[in-house]
Amino acid sequence: MHSSSWAQSETLTPSAPESPPAVTEAKEVTYPLTPEISSYCKELNKKFTAYKWGDPACEKYKWNHVRNSNLGTPLIWTVFGEEDTAAAENTTLFLCGVHGDEITPVKFCWDLLEELRKNHEFKDKLVVVAPLVAPDSFFKPHPTRTNGRGVDVNRNFPTKDWKADAHRKWKDNLGKDKRKFPGPHAASEQETIFQMNLILRYKPNKVISVHAPLTILDYDGPSLSIEKGKSAKVLLEQMSEKSSGYKISNYPIFPGSLGNWSGKEKHIPTYTLELPNTNPAETNRFWSLFKDSMVYAIENKMKPPVD
Questions:
Q1: Is residue 8 part of a domain?
Q2: Which CATH number belongs to the domain containing residue 153 in this structure?
Q3: Predicted pLDDT at 85
Q4: Does residue 265 form part of some domain?
Q5: Which long-range contacts (CB under 8 A, 24 or more apart) does 69-73 make?
Q6: How many C-beta neighbours within 10 Å does residue 240 have?
Q7: What range does the domain containing 54 cover?
């Protein structure tokens, strides 16, 4: 296992008393990349170039790296805000690129990264972003829903119903659809463990997972009809309103899904934003549509309901 390193150096030199201060353009901070993450970013650059998305600017983010996929690809994330401060009582976790063939969510998270890097301060909040949860599936010449081992990592979480229902429903309801194979056993995949560990480490007040192309905003978590779900309901409604009335839908819950594990079982308000399609040419439109709702969600200070 590996972890990325970084360094930041900035020296301020005062102007001479008799001279007005020189007007200079602020230099953006960059961070050195480990060889593994540098190789990862080269693959990412190829995809961004193919989709005409510009430069992902990997070097402008502090990447954390602890585990790799089963095929050896780094699973990375970055954090905005000070992890060790008690003031960070409002933590939001974003997950994108869970399914590699859902192209638009990947760029959505990079648009989010750029927005956070350029336009926000984080004195009283923490934002954790994993912009590409399943890189192996995205880096393929023809991206797939399943990861490098053919597992749908959004059906692989160790939910209470997994052992009894995951394979049974996959066979009976889905006709053994290879695109939705839940894995040989619960939490068999490094990408699943990666997401679980982010949730267990940061204990987010809310989780936002971005997918495509169902054109809905879905919620899993504490019941919206009882007291402890009221703040979650308000956020759900505001996210919809700030996205031109984007449709709220109570999508079915599945054995091994993030919403089941994080929302239903861990009682963390978990929102799934399903973008309208996977067309890489539409990414600017989608970010424009949902930017305000994402910023609002980050600023929302609701506390995670507990039993």
A1: no
A2: 3.40.630.10
A3: 58
A4: yes
A5: 69/134, 69/135, 69/136, 69/147, 69/148, 69/190, 69/191, 70/136, 70/147, 70/148, 70/149, 70/189, 70/190, 71/136, 71/148, 71/149, 73/40, 73/135, 73/136, 73/139, 73/148
A6: 16
A7: 35-299
Q: Is residue 162 part of a domain?
A: yes
- Tally of domains within the chain: 1
The pTM (predicted TM-score) of the whole model is 0.89
Residue 4 lies in a domain: no
Buried-state track 148-166, b at ≥16 Cβ within 10 A, e below 16: bbebbbbbbbbbebbeebb
Q: How many CA atoms lie within 13 A of 9 on its CB side?
A: 2
Angle formed at CA 77 by CA 71 and CA 83, multiple of 5 degrees: 140
CA 179 vs CA 50, 154, 195: distances in Å: 24, 11, 20
Cα–Cα distance list, 47 to 12, 64, 145 (Å): 38, 21, 16
Give the per-residue pLDDT at 204. 94
Q: Which residues of the chain have pLDDT under 70?
A: 1-27, 85-88, 225-228, 303-307
CA 42 to chain centroid, in Å, comes to 20
Separation of alpha carbons 7 and 153, rounded Å: 34
pLDDT the model gives residue 71: 95
Residues listed for the chain: 307
Cβ atoms of residues 164 and 129 within 8 Å: no
